[in-house]
């Protein structure tokens, strides 16, 4: 399962914030430049993260964004949930075709639940460290993240 672009940008941005000093805000202009994306798109992403309480905004000169809590206390599931628009559903009509569609929807909802559970176990710190300690997997990192 590949995350959508907004989720990918949010996770990358959160990693960038986590790698900085906890008291040094990062401006979205710098983050947008580092990620080679438009500032307005990144502002949408960070507005959702702020609304969900994952980041704090600091106004004024030298302002920007900070993590709202320690990286080990933020799960990748928290980040995904902050950007999720909610489940898609379709109304049923009771037909055989609809029951088959409902069965497929039930399957995808169960899979979504399993994936969500996995994401909830992986913290931002795990991503930074290149580990999945809470799910019993060690990632083999080929690149080292430098702040």
Task: Walk me through what this model shows.
With 147 residues, the protein is mainly α. The chain has a single domain, classed as Orthogonal Bundle (Arc Repressor Mutant, subunit A), CATH 1.10.10. The chain is 52% helix and 8% strand. It has a two-stranded antiparallel ribbon. Strand 3 and strand 4 (137-138) form a beta hairpin. Helix 1 (5-19) crosses helix 3 (39-51) and helix 4 (76-83) packs across helix 5 (96-121). Mean pLDDT is 81; it is low at 86-93 and 141-147.
Task: Describe this protein with a few key phrases.
single chain; 147 residues; mainly alpha; Arc Repressor Mutant, subunit A; two-stranded antiparallel ribbon; two-stranded antiparallel sheet; 4 strands; 8% strand
Major β-sheet strand ordering? 1-2
What is the strand tally? 4
Beta fraction of the residues? Answer: 5-15%
Order of helical and strand elements: HHHEEHHHEE
In short:
The chain is mainly alpha-helical and 147 residues long. The chain contains six helices and four strands, in the order αααββαααββ.
List the helices and strands and how they pair.
Blueprint (H helix, E strand, L loop, with lengths): L4 H15 L8 H8 L3 H13 L3 E4 L5 E4 L8 H8 L12 H26 L2 H6 L1 E2 L4 E2 L9
Antiparallel strand pairs: 1-2, 3-4
């Amino acid at each position: 399962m590949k995350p959508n672009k907004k989720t990918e940008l949010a996770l990358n941005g959160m990693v960038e914030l986590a790698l900085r000093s906890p008291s040094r805000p990062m401006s979205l202009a710098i983050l947008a430049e580092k990620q080679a994306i438009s500032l307005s798109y990144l502002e949408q992403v960070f507005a959702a993260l702020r609304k969900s309480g994952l980041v704090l905004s600091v106004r004024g000169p030298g302002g920007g964004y900070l993590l709202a809590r320690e990286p080990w206390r933020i799960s990748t599931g928290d980040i995904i949930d902050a950007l999720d628009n909610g489940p898609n559903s379709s109304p049923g009509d009771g037909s055989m075709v609809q029951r088959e569609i409902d069965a497929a929807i039930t399957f995808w909802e169960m899979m979504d639940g399993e994936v969500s559970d996995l994401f909830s176990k992986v913290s931002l710190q795990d991503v930074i460290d290149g580990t999945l300690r809470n799910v019993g997997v060690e990632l083999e990192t080929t690149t080292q993240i430098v702040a």
